[in-house]
């Protein structure tokens, strides 16, 4: 009897925290609100890649350090966050030296500094805490872990009576590092991803209280968003048969529990469920845990159904599923439904939910209630769609306006399959000249036209041969002789084609007509807009499907068509920025990125550091600038912050624009400062008075045209 062996080992290494040399040098500098540069020296070994000896180093570039500093003025603490300026250097013994600019606080008698990594993606949840995270998706470096998946917090606050020229930190790593060796992956196969799933939370956000003197109580692994699976994006790394991969996790004790590994390559899927019964296995903070997984189960990759983009590539024998609307060439990920196997009256029900990858491919096994069609060639370039229980068939009752979509045992209906310029697939019944559509009531039916709300898409797995049947010749392509516009009507004219019974004419999606017997067609009530030349076409259809001819290639037109029935009206748009939504940002924009607001003020948050209102404080001599891209600024209203039921002041000293200054007024009774413009301009810059001109803002309203 064959036996299966599994080799599993755990080796823990020493913590990586280094000892600080505490070589701070304080500098007595004038405290006038100007910037002071501090060199932050980070002791080695600490950061972002690990060598074969188990030593972690700072990378040559790319790491970004965050600094939180507090300052005491008249017995009260203030706090703010910043990050390194520019890059950093690494000395001969591995210490990273970052340059950080910190504002000198007038009247401060004490400064306290702490550091953390990474700055990117971190935000202060209070004046004392930062939010860090272990990503659910990581991209391991070759021979190391993903540096963006590492986290560090400095071990102790550094206190000074004035800002120093240099400060040195050692660090605690609140995350665990795993070194996993996979044995038996096929040599030279390309590893696309590895999924590691545990019985405990191993990824997600956590909090670091930088000012807690007790290092053991500084990190809180609760209250965040968590995952029990970490996906490693392996970037098609070539397998060797003994493959080492590093990743980071939240601390987790899996002793007596289990984990699983799933490896996807370009050829197979390798998987293993590991039961840790009577075994100790811990992923500990600041510790390297090594383990080996062998004897993985090998299975074939599921079939890949790819979005149909070129109908001319279809072959007899190809497998096809029909997908509900929602997928487009611009989407990166989408969940959808397929045309199912269950009848729903005169319609067909949807399948269970399926998922689409970044490259718009279905790769997971299809749901059991998905209807899979095999393409059989019809005599004129059309297709029979055969499922396991029969052929897809559509009818339409003209008297009762009733469409029917079902399957029959015999070939009663063939289908025309094409890909529209919008990316959706048009699957049209030859029997009743109607399109397969998807309804919001969760079933598939047919309709006379397709639009953005009811379109479908086809997914294909190409397994077929060349099309069956006799050689078919296309009719000659019509020549579009003219496209003219008269008000809201667009007329398309073309030359006749020998052997053509009728023509399919199209102006754009939603404006198409089939079965036109003349050589001219007029679309009426066409909305204003520009209709691209690429969407205008005429196709000639043969007189009989029994003849050895099929429809022509689509005729093209040379220029876009513009319909304009109403004069241009210059409209105004008003955007309101509620400043509490942009807390701690020195620059922010509206969702369309038309308006950009910059300032050099400071933020106030109700309940933080003694402040009793939310808003932006712009001290005397500071500025607020509103810039509008490719638009004209019409009006700006600055709303004062409210404290204790009273409006705080708005003291504007000067107003600068690209042309005239416009007019201004301030109503202290309702806390509003109004600026209105005259000539065209692209920005307005407000400067507060040089003295007694502090400005406290809660909202900014911008109107442009």
Key attributes of the depicted protein:
705 residues; mainly beta; ten-stranded mixed sheet; eight-stranded antiparallel sheet; flat; disordered N terminus
- Report the uncertain regions: 1-32, 329-333, 466-471
Task: Indicate the mean pLDDT.
Answer: 82
User: Which range best describes the helical content: under 10%, 10-25%, 25-40%, 40-55%, 55-70% or over 70%?
Assistant: under 10%
Derived from helix and strand composition plus strand pairing, the structural class reads mainly beta
Rg of Cα set = 34 Å
Write up what this structure looks like.
This protein is mostly beta strands and 705 residues long. The strands form 16 sheets. Strands 2, 3, 6, 7, 8, 9, 12, 13, 14 and 15 form a 10-stranded mixed sheet that branches. The protein has an 8-stranded antiparallel sheet with strand order 33-29-42-30-34-35-36-37, with no helix packed on it. The radius of gyration is 34 Å and the shape is flat.
Write the layout of secondary structure elements.
Elements: E1 11-12, E2 25-26, E3 35-42, E4 49-50, E5 56-57, E6 66-73, E7 76-90, E8 96-103, E9 110-117, E10 129-134, E11 137-138, E12 152-154, E13 158-160, E14 164-169, E15 171-172, E16 176-183, E17 190-198, E18 203-209, E19 219-220, E20 226-227, E21 229-238, E22 242-249, E23 252-253, E24 258-265, E25 268-275, E26 282-283, E27 288-293, E28 297-300, E29 305-307, E30 319-323, E31 334-344, E32 347-356, E33 361-362, E34 373-377, E35 383-387, E36 390-397, E37 402-408, E38 415-419, E39 425-429, E40 435-439, E41 443-447, E42 457-461, E43 473-474, E44 480-486, E45 489-494, E46 500-508, E47 511-516, E48 520-523, E49 529-531, E50 537-542, E51 549-550, E52 561-563, E53 573-578, E54 587-589, E55 595-599, E56 602-604, E57 615-618, E58 623-628, E59 633-640, E60 642-643, E61 646-647, E62 652-657, E63 663-667, E64 672-676, E65 683-688, E66 695-704
Parallel strand pairs: 3-14, 11-21, 16-27, 43-51
Antiparallel strand pairs: 1-27, 2-14, 3-8, 4-5, 6-7, 6-9, 7-8, 9-12, 9-13, 10-18, 12-15, 16-22, 17-21, 17-24, 18-19, 18-20, 23-26, 24-25, 25-28, 29-33, 29-42, 30-34, 30-42, 31-32, 32-41, 34-35, 35-36, 36-37, 38-39, 40-41, 44-45, 45-48, 46-47, 46-50, 49-52, 53-66, 54-55, 55-58, 56-57, 57-66, ...
């Amino acid at each position: 009897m064959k036996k299966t062996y599994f080799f599993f080992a755990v080796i823990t290494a020493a913590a990586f925290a280094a000892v600080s040399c505490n070589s701070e040098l304080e500098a007595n500098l004038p405290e006038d609100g100007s910037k002071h540069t501090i060199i932050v020296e980070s002791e080695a070994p600490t950061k972002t890649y690990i060598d074969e000896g188990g030593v972690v180093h700072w990378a040559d570039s790319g790491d970004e350090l965050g600094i939180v500093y507090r300052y005491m003025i008249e017995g009260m603490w203030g706090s703010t966050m910043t990050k390194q300026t520019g890059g950093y250097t690494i000395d001969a013994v591995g210490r990273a030296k970052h340059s950080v600019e910190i504002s000198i606080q007038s009247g401060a008698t004490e400064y306290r500094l702490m550091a953390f990594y990474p700055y990117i993606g971190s935000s202060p949840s209070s004046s004392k805490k930062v939010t860090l995270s272990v990503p659910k998706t990581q991209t391991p470096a070759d021979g190391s872990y993903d540096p963006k998946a590492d986290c560090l917090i400095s071990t102790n606050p550094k206190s000074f009576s004035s800002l120093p020229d240099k400060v040195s930190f050692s660090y605690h790593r609140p995350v665990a590092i795993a070194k996993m060796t996979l044995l038996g992956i096929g040599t030279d196969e390309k590893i696309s991803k590895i999924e590691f799933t545990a019985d405990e939370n191993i990824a997600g956000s956590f909090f670091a209280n930088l000012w807690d003197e007790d290092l053991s109580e500084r990190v809180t692994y609760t209250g965040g968003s968590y995952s029990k699976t970490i996906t490693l994006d392996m970037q098609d790394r070539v397998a060797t048969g003994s493959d080492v991969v590093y990743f980071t996790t939240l601390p987790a004790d899996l002793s007596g529990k289990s984990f699983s590994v799933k490896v996807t390559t370009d050829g197979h899927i390798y998987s293993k469920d590991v039961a840790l019964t009577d075994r100790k296995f811990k992923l500990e903070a600041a510790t390297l845990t090594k383990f080996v997984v062998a004897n993985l189960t090998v299975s074939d990759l599921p079939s890949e159904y790819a979005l149909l983009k070129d109908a001319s590539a279809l072959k007899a024998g190809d497998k096809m599923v029909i997908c509900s609307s929602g997928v487009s060439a611009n989407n990166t990920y989408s969940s959808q439904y397929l045309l199912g196997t269950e009848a729903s009256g005169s319609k067909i029900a949807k399948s269970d939910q399926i998922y689409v990858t970044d490259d718009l491919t279905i790769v997971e096994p299809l749901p059991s209630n998905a209807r899979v069609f095999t393409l059989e060639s019809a005599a004129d370039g059309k297709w029979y769609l055969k499922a396991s229980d029969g052929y897809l068939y559509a009818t339409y009752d003209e008297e009762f306006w009733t469409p029917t979509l079902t399957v029959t045992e015999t070939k009663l209906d063939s289908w025309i399959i094409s890909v529209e310029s919008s990316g959706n697939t048009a699957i049209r019944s030859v029997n009743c000249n109607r399109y397969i559509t998807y309804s919001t009531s969760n079933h598939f039916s047919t309709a006379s036209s397709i639009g953005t709300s009811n379109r479908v898409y086809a997914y294909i797995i190409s397994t077929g041969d060349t099309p069956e049947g006799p050689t078919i010749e296309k009719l000659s392509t019509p020549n579009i002789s003219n496209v003219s516009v008269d008000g809201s009507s667009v007329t398309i004219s073309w030359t006749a084609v020998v052997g053509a019974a009728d023509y399919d004419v199209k102006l754009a999606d939603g404006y198409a007509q089939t079965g036109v017997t003349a050589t001219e067609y007029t679309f009426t009530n066409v909305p204003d807009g520009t209709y691209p030349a690429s969407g205008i076409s005429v196709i000639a259809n043969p007189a009989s499907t029994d003849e050895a001819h099929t429809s022509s290639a689509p005729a093209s037109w040379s220029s876009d068509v513009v319909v304009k029935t109403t004069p241009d009206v210059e409209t105004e748009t008003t955007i309101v920025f509620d400043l509490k939504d942009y807390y701690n940002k020195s620059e922010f924009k509206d969702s369309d990125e038309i308006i950009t607001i910059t300032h050099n003020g400071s933020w106030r948050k109700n309940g933080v550091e003694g402040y009793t209102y939310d808003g932006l404080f712009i001290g005397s001599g500071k500025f607020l600038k509103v810039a509008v891209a490719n638009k004209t600024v019409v009006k700006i209203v600055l709303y004062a912050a409210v404290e204790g039921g009273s409006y705080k002041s708005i003291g504007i000293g000067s107003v600068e624009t690209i042309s005239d200054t416009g007019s201004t007024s301030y109503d202290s009774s309702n806390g509003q400062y109004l600026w209105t413009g005259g000539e065209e301009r692209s920005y307005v810059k407000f400067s507060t008075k040089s003295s007694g001109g502090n400005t406290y803002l809660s909202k900014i309203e911008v109107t442009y045209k």
